[in-house]
Amino acid sequence: MTLLILWRHGQTEWNAAHRIQGQTDTPLSAVGVSQAKESAPRLAALNPTVLVASNLNRASTTAAALAEVSGLSPAYDPRLRERGFGDWEGHTHAEVTERWPESFARWRRGEEVNDAGVEEIDAVAKRMVAALQEVTAAAGPDAVIVAATHGAAARFATVALLGWPMSLAPSLGALHNCHATHLRHDAVRGWTLEAHNAA
C-alpha cells in the first residue's frame, strides 16, 4: 500500500500574527526553520521514497529540511500551493472581519466565500488531487510519499481523496505547523485516513 503524508510547512511570522497568507510567498520564521529541522528526522524514519512540495518558499524550505536528512531530491508543483485568498492576503483575521464580515463568517463556517477573489474550495481540491494522484501513480506500489504543502490545501485534498462531502471539511481539525495527515491507498479500498495532525 502507498503511504501519502501531507506535511504542513513550518511557522511563518504571518502565521504567528494570524495574518492570512494564501499564495503570498512568505518565508519561514526562525521558529518555523527549527520546526522543520526537528520534524524532518521523524519523517525520514518512515523511509520516504518520494518528496514533492509546493513551490512557495515556506513549503520548499520545509521540504529542504527533509531532503537534507533523507537524501531525496524534492520536486516542486505549483498545484500544491495554498488556497488563494485574494484581497484578504496580508490582512489579519481581525482586519478581514472588519472589512468583509459576512464573507469571513462564511469562511469560518467552511462555506464558499464568493468574494474578494478567494479561490473556490472545489478548485483547490481538484488541483491538489490531480497533483497527488499523478505522484501516487508514478511512484508505484508501496511508495512512501511526502508532500510538503499548506494547511487549507491539505485539508481539502484529504476530504476529496477520502470521497467525503466537502461540507465535512470543517470537522477535520486545522493542521498545525510541521504536523501531517497520513493517508493509505490500496487498489481495493482506495484511500483511508491513518492519522491526522501527526507530529
From TrEMBL:
One protein family per Pfam: His_Phos_1
Domain of life: Bacteria
InterPro entries recorded: His_Pase_superF_clade-1, His_PPase_superfam, PG/BPGM_mutase_AS, PGM_Phosphatase
Protein name: Histidine phosphatase family protein
